[in-house]
Amino acid sequence: MRRSITLCLLVCSFALAASAQSLSNRRAPGFSLPDMNMKQHDLQDFRGKLVLLNIMQTSCPHCNTFSKVLAEAEKRYKDQVQVIDIVNTPPETQATVRNYLMRNGVSQLVLFDCRQVAISYLMLTPQKPNFDVPHLFVIDQKGWIQADYGYEIGNKEIFEGEGLFPIIEKYLGKTSTAGVHQGDSSPSVGF
Hints:
Layout: H1 2-21, E1 26-27, E2 32-34, E3 40-42, E4 50-55, H2 61-77, E5 81-88, H3 94-104, E6 109-113, H4 116-122, E7 130-132, E8 135-139, E9 144-150, H5 156-160, H6 164-171, E10 188-190
Parallel strand pairs: 4-5, 5-6
Antiparallel strand pairs: 1-9, 2-3, 4-8, 7-10, 8-9
């Protein structure tokens, strides 16, 4: 009996550890966050669209490059895709976001988070308080996180080239050959 309980606890702890590692294949945590004009935006407002949720920082060079890719995605897929950039405040302010948008020539929706959304999406803990940016979550039309990507050399094409578009088409029901990896080799942010 004791051996069975020990074995069961061991299997359960492995299962919990494996599930804790995955940031995808779960319902997207809900939120309501303000934009630069203090207008609230709720994730539920975008139900029915493919949401590209990007946790980023205005001073991150990879985030600046990725902003142009995301702007192109919004342009290509118009009413089917919603891009949401989330920044943490502090250090971000209305001024840093305004400069970021002007510098990159984009007009994406940027929302301000006090780290609660970043914590819930990235499953941060006191033992793992830091995260890398940019980090993209692909949320399907029903509100489920289907995939997530942290910037790394292996998936650089998603953040700097055409690699995002086959992923979008896959979740919009079009044919795609997306094959990408997750990782982290970009600036870290702590909570």
